[in-house]
Amino acid sequence: MVDEFFISLAIKKAWEYQFLTYPNPAVGAVVVKDGKILSILAHHGAGKPHAEVEALKEAYYKLTNDKTILKLKSSNKIHEFLYKNHNNIFNTSTIYVTLEPCNHYGKTPPCSLLVEKLKLKKVVIATLDLNSEASGGVDRLKKANINVKVGVLEKEAKELLYPFTKWQKDKFIFFKMAQSLNGEITGGYISCDESLDFVHELRDKIDLIIIGGNSVRVDRPTLDTRRLKNSTKNPDILIYSRDKNFDKSIPLFNIPNRKVFIEDNLNEINNYKFIMIEGGYEMLKATKNIIDWHLIFIAPKIFSNTNLNKPIPLIELNYLHTIKSGVDLKIFAKIK
Which one of the listed residues 52, 58, 100, 184 is annotated catalytic? Predict the structure, then answer.
């Protein structure tokens, strides 16, 4: 049960960055030496150090108190530093990873090569990488005489990995909704700042937002990434509406480098890979057959003007993962 415990910590950490790593998978890693946890880290985003690199970087600092490594941000520099300075301090350590360490040179060097060079004692992996370009890490590690165990909490790891496998093959679509404790979804901003920041980070990653025409007319949204300091990306917009007449002074129409489609069908989704749907119950009803997952923010608020006096179940969901987002509860779910 020890391996299951440490892998569960890696999976939990990876969920904090779910969707934000697009087009990469969400991956978590834990480094343990002589029964003591040295680090619990995750991959933060495409082009940034992988989970194994982040975890080994933190573990090195914990073991040596050498602050030099904390200044290194690029994966290449962290790899090079650890190659030169590890001094075999990891040879009784185990790294627990939610996904097989990569075995190819992409935007970052292979994690399997780093683990090999640092001479870790053991690697525990939740699930293998089915991406032929990146796979092969297990074979490399075994050839280096490192003890490798695969398949610990594999079901949970594959669930974490599902968006990645889906957008690799086709496209991944999720429905985002924010509501109060008593189910109210209208009335201005419902979510806290941390949740709003997360949504803007999502918009920086996704390719397309789908929103209903009525929501556009009533809310007059911008649907941009203005809460992020360095973002230059704003997703394209598909307004799903029979009536194609809109006030073009609505902010979403005036964002640079953005396409806005006004259609009475959803065919445009076939030109995109990572798609978010925003809206209320009518939009949920109209799109429920194309949704892969749901992302729900529940604010600790009770509104007095709720319209749900006679609630009628529209869909039933299974929770995949729940996590605090400031004072809100962030829920990943899929249709039961």
Answer: 52
